[in-house]
Amino acid sequence: MSWEVVDPQWSDADVDAADLWARSGGQWLTAPGVAVPVELVRGAVGLARCLDAQGAGLADLVGADGVGVIGERAAALGLSPSGPATGRAASCGGASRILPCADGWVVATLARDDDIAAVPAWLGVDLGGPHWPIVERAVADRACAEVVEQATLLGLACARLGEVGEMHPVRGRRLGDAAPKPLEGLVVANLSSLWAGPLAGDVLARMGARVVKVESEYRPDGSRRAGRFFEALHGRCESVALPLHTDDGCRQLGELLSNVDVVIEGSRPRALQQLGIDAVTLTERHPQIWVSITAYGRDGAAGHRVGFGDDTAVAGNLVGWVGESPTFLADAVADPVTGLSVAAVIAQLANGGGRWLVDVALAHVAASMSPRSNGTIIAADQGSVRPKVRSDPGRPLPLGRDTATVLDEFGIRSST
Amino acid sequence: MAINLKPGTRLFSAVCTTEMIVVKASGADADVTIGGVAPVTAAADRDGSGSVVDGHGGGASMGKRYVDVEGAFELLCTKPGDGVPALDGVLFELKDAKPLPASD
C-alpha cells in the first residue's frame, strides 16, 4: 500500500516574520544576532491560523498570532537561551549539543542517565568526568556516519546536521472509507508524551474533541515531572493508566483503541507491536485516524531511530549560524511545529473522511521549515521579548484519574 | 570460550539471527553465549552451522536490554532472534525499559 501526501493545508499569508519571531520569544531563546529562516515563522503562523479558523484559539492563548507556542515550554520551565554557552552550542533544555566531526556536524541528545551511561559503548571512551567534553573530543576526528551509526544501534538520539535535506511531506496511507467526523465530540486517545503529541491533543481539545491521555502505570509520561508545563498541555484531558507490562493491560489497550475515533502515539512502531498493537490492523476497522509521530518516519531502519525536538530540528537543517558554527533555534523547535502539524492534519482528515494511517516525522516537519532560499530574517537584539506562558494554566491531571470511568464506559473489563 | 567484552562490542549469534551490542562490561574476559553457543564479533564470521541449545531459546526482542544476575554486564538487542544471552550458562534477565525523560 502506498503513501499519499496529506500535508496540512494552510495559506501563506504576508506576515511580519521578524516581529512575530521576536514576540514569540523565539528570538530571545536563540543566540543573539542569529538568522532565522522565514519559512519557520511562516509555517508556524500558517498552521496556527488554520487551527484558529476552526476554533483552537491559539492566538489568544499563546500570543504572537499563535507563534508563541514556540516559546511557551521554555517560559514554563524557566529555561535559558540556547547557544554557545560554554564551548559548543547547547540546547535550551541543556541535553543536546551540536558537535564538529571530521567531515561535518552531528547533534546528540543525552537526556537520561542511561543515555550518558551508554557513552562508553557509543564512542569507546571511559567516562571519567563531565560527559560532553569527553564526547566532543571523541567525535572530533571521526566521520559523522560512523558516529551516528553506532549511536543509532544503541538507541541514542543522534543525527548529522542536515541529513534530512530534501522535502518530506506528511504522508498518509488510506486504509478504507469512512464518513467525515465533526471535531466536536471526536474521541482521541493520546498515547504520546513530552511536547509535540500532547500539544496536538490539547489543540484538538480546544477545537471540541474529547482527549483521553493513555499512559503506562509503570512508565508514565516523563513530562509529568515538568509540573506546570504538563498541566498546561493536559488541562482538558482525561487520564487512563493501564498496566502495559502485563498481557491483561495490553488487552485493555487494544480494546480501548478500538473504541476511539483517533489515536495519536509517539512510539517506535516495534514498541507497540511488542504490546500486540498493530496500527494498520486496528485502523482498518476502528479507530478512523491513526497518527504516528516518529523522529524520522515509520518505515524500515528509520522507524527504529530515537529523536527529540532539538536533535531532529538539526537533522532537518533547521538551525541558525554563529559565524561558521551551527546553533539551535529556540527550544526543541521541531516539537511545537510538529504538534501544530499533527492537529491540523487530524482536523483535515476528520473533515474529509476515510480511514488513515498518518506518519508525521519530527525531522521531516523541521526540514519543511528549514531555509530554502535566501529568505532569512535576522534576529536583532533590540526588541527581544521573553517567552511567555499561556494564558490558561491548565490544571493537574492525576495519573489514572479516569481509568475506571472510561473502561466502564467502553465496556472494557478491568484488570483481574 | 571466553570473550573480551568491552562497551560497544557487537555480538552476533553463531546459531540464530540475534545480535547484541555490549552497553556495560567490566572489560574482563567472560564466558558469554547467545543461544547457548559462543557468539562471533563480526557478521562475516558466522558459518551457519549449529543450532540454539535447549533452554537458550525463546526469543530476544529488538531494543530490549539484558543484564546478568550480578549486574556486571548489560547487552542491548540490535536484531531479534531465537537465542537469548547467558553468562557462565546462566541466562541474562530482561531489564526494565528506560524511563521517559522529563524534557529534552
Please explain how this structure is put together.
By secondary structure, chain A is an alpha/beta fold. Chain A folds into 2 domains: 1-82 and 163-416, Crotonobetainyl-coa:carnitine coa-transferase, domain 1 (Rossmann fold, 3-Layer(aba) Sandwich), CATH 3.40.50.10540; 96-160, formyl-coa transferase, domain 3, CATH 3.30.1540.10. Helix content of chain A is 35%, strand content 17%. An 8-stranded mixed beta sheet of chain A has the order 1-6-14-11-10-7-8-9, with helices on both faces. Chain A has a 3-stranded antiparallel beta sheet with strand order 3-4-5, with helices on both faces. Chain A has a two-stranded antiparallel ribbon with strand order 2-15. In chain A, strand 12 (320-322) and strand 13 form a beta hairpin. Chain A starts with a strand and ends in a 7-residue tail after the last helix. The mean pLDDT of chain A is 93. Chain B has one domain (3-94). Chain B is built from no helices and 10 strands. In chain B, a hairpin with a 6-residue loop joins strand 2 and strand 3. The N and C termini of chain B lie far apart (42 Å). The model of chain B has no long low-confidence stretch (mean pLDDT 92). The A-B interface holds A 73, 77, 91, 93, 95-96, 109, 111-112, 114-115, 117-118, 120-124, 150, 153-155, 157, 193-195, 218-226, 229, 268, 270-271, 274, 304, 308-310, 332, 335 and B 6-8, 10, 21-24, 61-63, 76, 78, 96-104.
Kindly list the characteristics that best describe this protein.
heterodimer, A: 416 residues, alpha/beta, Rossmann fold, formyl-coa transferase, domain 3, 2 domains, eight-stranded mixed beta sheet, 17% strand, B: 104 residues, mainly beta, five-stranded antiparallel beta sheet, three-stranded antiparallel beta sheet, 0% helix
- Which range best describes the helical content of chain A: under 10%, 10-25%, 25-40%, 40-55%, 55-70% or over 70%? 25-40%
Name the overall outline of chain B. globular
Structural class of chain B: mainly beta
Helix run count of chain B:
0
The helix/strand series of chain B, from N terminus to C terminus, equals: EEEEEEEEEE
Shape call of chain A: globular
| CATH architecture term of the largest domain in chain A | 3-Layer(aba) Sandwich
Largest interface: A-B, 46 and 22 residues
Mean of residue pLDDT values of chain A: 93
Number of helices of chain A: 17
Name the beta content range of chain A. Answer: 15-25%
Q: Strand-residue fraction of chain B? A: 25-35%
The poorly predicted ranges of chain B are none
Strand order, biggest sheet of chain B?
2-3-7-6-10
What is Rg of chain A?
21 Å
CATH topology of the largest domain in chain A: Rossmann fold
Largest sheet of chain A: 8 strands, mixed
**What topology, given as strand order, has the largest sheet of chain A?**
1-6-14-11-10-7-8-9
